[in-house]
């Protein structure tokens, strides 16, 4: 059949981001939001040099991209449909702002990771 | 809705010495009444009365002009769905004792037009239901010696050739969705349907899913246009209240998400496959 819209694309990213947000993001928040600032991990595990070296690994770069970008797409889709729920018009402007921000951020992250 | 209640207790209402309970019922005849109003009825409190019994008492004893749909009295026909204190329920399996002694507010199902009093306009839903072709399509294609699209005479031959078998595992894929009685409580519960009446909605999608999951059915492609359009499965934001209010324990929210996965697969294949194979 001919598709007149591409909602499945955004929904798929939203779904994948939902899984990441549920399983990976809480761990990342625990690590970066609590354990690191409270110095509950050995200093060698989180100093700049060791984290930078870790992020050089191609697999780790991929993991960072997947965790951050998919979470952003998840948020964008949630906010876009949330706007509809609270009665705000969800025209091209809202679509561009939400998905556009997620897209640009993902692109910026990709460039950052590739040039790291 | 903030509509002032008018006290229209009939002369034949029971004496105040009996235990009683108050029903505030929305009354409205489009074209005759300028706006919906609530009418208050004092009725005897009988512990084993359902709301349907209470409405029957009002219609028989107090005000014969009260209109509401009902039929089977046992949660099978799906006719008597209405709002009780803002929650969509079947009148036949909602009981006075669960509200007593508080007054109960009775309204027609939310998100639908009112035909008269508690009777809602089902027409838009019936059109949606029809659009998803809720019946088995080309059942004999998989039967022994069956051929897709074979004429009726051939179908009789294939029936003689052998039955269309189904394992318990294959049945389990759609069994719960076949329990839907089209009572429309899920449409009243759905905030997306409230915002966008064009949304195909929980019951129609559940029934489409029921047939899509049936291994005897060959109609997935026939149902795809209605399901895959923007007002099809994609309007759902997985609030899940539809599944909570379903009186038959169908899980429409699950059906919709599964149809989204099917739709996303179709969408991806529409890009990957060559044009002729889509």
TrEMBL record, chain A:
It is a multi-pass membrane protein. The chain crosses the membrane at residues 12-38, 58-76, 97-115. Pfam families: Fumarate_red_D. One of its GO terms (biological process) is fumarate metabolic process. One of its GO terms (molecular function) is succinate dehydrogenase activity. InterPro entries: Fumarate_red_D, SQR/QFR_C/D. GO terms for cellular component: fumarate reductase complex; plasma membrane. Its main location: membrane. Keywords: Cell membrane, Membrane, Transmembrane, Transmembrane helix. It is found in: Cell membrane. Anchors the catalytic components of the fumarate reductase complex to the cell membrane, binds quinones. Part of an enzyme complex containing four subunits: a flavoprotein (FrdA), an iron-sulfur protein (FrdB), and two hydrophobic anchor proteins (FrdC and FrdD). Belongs to the FrdD family. This is Fumarate reductase subunit D. It comes from Marinobacter orientalis.
Automatic annotation (TrEMBL), chain B:
One of its GO terms (cellular component) is plasma membrane. Residues 145-164 are annotated as: Disordered. The keyword Cell membrane applies. It is an enzyme of class 1 (oxidoreductase). It catalyses: a quinone + succinate = fumarate + a quinol. Its EC number is 1.3.5.1. It holds the Pfam family Fer2_3. Its main location: membrane. It comes from the Bacteria. Its cofactor is [3Fe-4S] cluster; [2Fe-2S] cluster; [4Fe-4S] cluster. Part of an enzyme complex containing three subunits: a flavoprotein (frdA), an iron-sulfur protein (frdB), and diheme cytochrome b (frdC). This is succinate dehydrogenase. It comes from Marinobacter orientalis.
């Amino acid at each position: 059949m001919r598709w007149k819209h591409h909602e499945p694309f955004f929904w798929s990213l939203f779904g994948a981001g939902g899984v990441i947000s549920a399983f990976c993001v809480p761990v990342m928040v625990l690590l970066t939001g609590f354990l690191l600032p409270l110095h509950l991990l050995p200093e060698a595990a989180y100093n700049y040099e060791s984290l930078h070296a870790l992020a050089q690994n191609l697999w780790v770069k991929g993991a960072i991209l997947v965790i951050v970008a998919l979470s952003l797409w998840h948020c964008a889709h949630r906010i876009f449909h949330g706007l509809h729920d609270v009665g705000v018009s969800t025209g091209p402007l809202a679509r561009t702002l939400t998905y556009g921000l997620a897209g640009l951020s993902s692109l910026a992250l990709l460039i950052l990771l590739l040039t790291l | 809705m903030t509509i002032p209640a008018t006290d229209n207790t009939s002369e034949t209402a029971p004496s105040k010495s009996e235990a009683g309970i108050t029903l505030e019922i929305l009354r409205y005849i489009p074209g005759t009444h300028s706006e919906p109003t609530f009418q208050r009825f004092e009725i005897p409190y009988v512990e084993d009365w359902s709301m349907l019994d209470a409405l029957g008492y009002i219609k028989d004893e107090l005000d014969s002009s009260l209109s509401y749909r009902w039929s089977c009295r046992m949660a099978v026909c799906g006719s008597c769905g209405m709002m009780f204190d803002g929650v969509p329920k079947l009148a036949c399996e909602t009981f006075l004792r669960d509200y007593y002694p508080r007054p109960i507010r009775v309204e027609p199902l939310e998100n639908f037009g009112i035909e008269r009093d508690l009777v809602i306009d089902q027409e838009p839903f019936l059109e949606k239901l029809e659009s998803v072709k809720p019946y088995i399509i080309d059942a004999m294609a998989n039967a022994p010696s069956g051929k897709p699209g074979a004429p009726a005479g051939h179908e009789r031959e294939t029936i003689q050739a052998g039955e269309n078998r189904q394992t318990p595992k294959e049945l389990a894929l759609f069994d719960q969705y076949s329990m839907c009685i089209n009572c429309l409580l899920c449409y009243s519960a759905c905030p997306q349907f409230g915002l966008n009446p064009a949304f195909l909605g929980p019951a129609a999608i559940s029934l489409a899913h029921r047939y899509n999951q049936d291994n005897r059915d060959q109609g997935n492609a026939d149902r795809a246009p209605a399901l895959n359009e923007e007002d099809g499965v994609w309007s759902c934001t997985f609030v899940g209240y539809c599944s909570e209010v379903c009186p038959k324990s169908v899980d429409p929210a699950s059906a919709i998400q599964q149809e989204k996965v099917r739709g996303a697969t179709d969408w991806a294949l529409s890009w990957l496959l060559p044009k002729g194979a889509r």
